[in-house]
Amino acid sequence: RRVLLLGEGNFSFAASLCGAAGTYVVATCYESEEEVSGRGRAAESIRRLREGGAEVMFSVDCTKLKDYFLPEKREFDCIYFNFPHCGRKAGVVKNRELLAHFFCSSAEVLTEEGEIHVALCNGQGGTPADQPRREWHNSWQIVAVAAEAGFILSNVHPFKAETIHGYKCTGYRSQDKSFCVEGALNHVFTRSMPLLYLKPMICEIELENQKVSFQVPQVLVDKINRGFLELNSNHPVRTVKEKLTAELSQAFPLQNIDYCLSLLHRGHLNGICHSNIFWTILSPEDAPSTEEMSNGLANAVSFSHVDFCRDTDKNGCLNVQEGCHMSKQYYLRPSLLPYAQAIIQRGTFLPGTLHVLSGPVFRKCLITPYSMPVFHEMVFVCAVNRGTENSCIQMLVNNIERSIHSLHQTVSSFELNINLQEATSFETTELNAFAAFESQLSKIQYFISMEIDTSGFCEKGSCVGIVRTAHYELISSELVFVFASLNLDLLAMLICGISDWRMLWTSDTRFRCQFPRGELRLFKSFSLYPPSYVHDVSFWVPDGEQFDELAFHTIARWVSGEMVTSIQLIDSFQQPETGRKSLCYRLTFQSCDKALSRQDVAEMQLLFRKKIKQCLRVTLR
User: Fold this and answer.
1) What is the DSSP letter of 318?
2) Could you tell me which residues come within 8 angstroms of residue 85 by beta carbon, excluding any fewer than 6 positions away?
3) Which intervals hold domain FDX-ACB (predicted)?
4) Are the CB atoms for 3 and 82 separated by under 8 Å?
5) Residue among 511, 508, 416 at smallest CA distance from 464
6) CB–CB of 149/76 below 8 Å?
7) d(CA 220, CA 197)
8) What is the layout of strands, in order, in the sheet containing 619-620?
9) How far apart are CA 73 and CA 167, in angstroms?
10) What is the sign, positive or negative, of the torsion defined by CA atoms of 7, 12, 13, 18?
11) What is the mean pLDDT of the chain?
């Protein structure tokens, strides 16, 4: 294990590491050997290092590290830089610049799995770990500076100088004087996965005994066919599903029917509003060539308009243009409930058996903390005799509650409450978390809500499921069908303490490795205190048109790769003379798993402005 130490003042820290089993130390300082040797304890520490087999180097500039090592010796497993400073009375701006150049230089000599340790005095870093915390503009902004070089903060802990044998800090204002390290913090950085720049994607499936291809809406390209629920998956969403199923099978005869579920539906939705649906067109012939995709398909993003027939009425419902073939209208499934309905109508439903369906569902939504354009839905359906449906609902919910409690207790000691509430006690927008339509199913009767008694991320009363009942007279006048739908993604988040739904979809192996197969654990974030950036955009709305806010949010999701965490309307103005309306929105950008720099966000914002002008026909201000 090769360890590089930078900016050593008297080499006492390096000497404390020397001799550790399996560690090769390279200790450096910025000054010359003559300048350093006169400092207290420096000569003794240098002697100990050399006798212990360490390498000692002088006059090393931390911003040009690759210049000091041959290519075969440039890979270090760990780099330490304790209390960096430009010297004398340098301000925060100069020290930010030093850190920025240091991180860029370190990226050239660090192994892929390596770590960078930076110790700072209390308050300098600017993270919530600093107590008291400085104002952001008066700090060194270390997480934002590191992000510029592709690093994320993966750990932060106290720098306990008293536990380091022989260590004595020095260098106060470039002198051989100590400084206060009480409350100092050690910041541990690791490499981030690169930001994804997703190319258009054609997906091929078998539909109605025919192989067909369709273009995946750009906002969903990295979420199609991820296989979270497949047999070989150790994703927590699958673990939650399997454990819930196992628990419920002890109370009900159970039958899984996931095998026959298609990603696509076809045709009209019987007058239901289409604004939440991802539409697409099938291509039974050969898929487009790469050149065709790069020339034309890159802009084929599904907005709240229908991609192939862009006009909608004032309510956001579809107006089909002449020449659009209804036989080619397909949409990504927004719920699994219609599949249950179809099974019932085919007469293949077994009364008294709990039928279970699960899989990803898709629907457009505004950007909010718990609004997911894709999530894994789990649907339970049971046929019972008329008049017994309420007892069946209570029995089903009680068993779901016990199962979730059982899962939660294996992970966390926080108190968990699950409630069955009348639908009237929730806002109607809660429906969007489960289905974009209710085709031939009765209205929602109950919501299943969860509360976790902690000051953490979970808002009290988070809705994780719905319960409905329906009658099918043509099948049986004596049977009532009970439907329950659960959001597996939200359940996994609440049980495992995952504060951001986007983390479920990360491709970073540091997420999956925390969940060995069949186990649920409290999630420990590998990207702490990620920086956030705010940009405003204002524009004139086209005359006579209603502004499509859902399309606005969908474009933001697409151009940022889900890096926009909040969109707020901060100003609305109507010009008295002309009646023109101007809107101003504030966008907050933040990544939960990757390094996101100011430059990255500036490019996203420019693309966003371009796309809303092109797609929503607004006039930018």
Assistant:
1) B
2) 95, 98, 171
3) 528-621
4) no
5) 416
6) no
7) 13
8) 564-574, 581-589, 533-540, 619-620
9) 28
10) positive
11) 82
Beta strand pairing status for 581-589 and 564-574? antiparallel
Least confident of 103-107, 217-221, 428-432: 428-432
d(Cα 28, Cα 7) in Å, to the nearest integer? 6
The arithmetic mean of pLDDT across residues 71-93, rounded, is 87
DSSP track, 380-396: EEEEEETT-HHHHHHHH
For residue 328, what pLDDT band results from cuts at 50, 70 and 90? low
- How many residues can be counted in the chain? 621
Judged by DSSP in three states, 67 sits in helix
Q: How far apart are CA 341 and CA 440, in angstroms?
A: 8
Q: Which two tokens stand for residue 600?
A: 């990255």
Token readout for 27 is 């200790």
Query: For residue 584, what pLDDT is reported?
Result: 97
pLDDT for 412:
74
Q: Name the residue with higher pLDDT: 436 or 75.
A: 75
What is the Cα–Cα distance from 177 to 174, expressed in whole angstroms?
8
- Please state, in angstroms and rounded to a whole number, the distance separating the CA atoms of residues 463 and 484: 13
Kindly report the backbone phi and psi dihedral angles of residue 401, in degrees, each rounded to the nearest multiple of 5, phi listed first: -60, -50
C-beta of residue 54 within 8 angstroms of C-beta of residue 61: no
Asked if 541 and 547 touch (Cβ cutoff 8 Å), the reply is: yes
> In the sheet that 151-158 helps form, which strands lie side by side, from edge to edge?
55-57, 24-28, 2-6, 76-82, 110-120, 185-191, 151-158
| CA–CA distance, 1 with 114 (Å, rounded to integer) | 10
Query: In the numeric block, which tokens belong to residue 420?
Result: 């069955």
Reading across the β-sheet that carries 446-453, which strands appear in turn?
254-256, 354-362, 374-385, 479-487, 462-471, 446-453, 415-422
Q: Are strands 354-362 and 254-256 parallel, antiparallel or unpaired?
A: parallel
pLDDT tens profile 574-583: 998 888 999 9
Tell me how far apart the alpha carbons of residues 66 and 74 are, in angstroms, rounded to a whole number.
7
- 8 Å CB contact between 19 and 52: yes
pLDDT digits (tens, 9 = 90+) for 53-63: 999 999 999 99
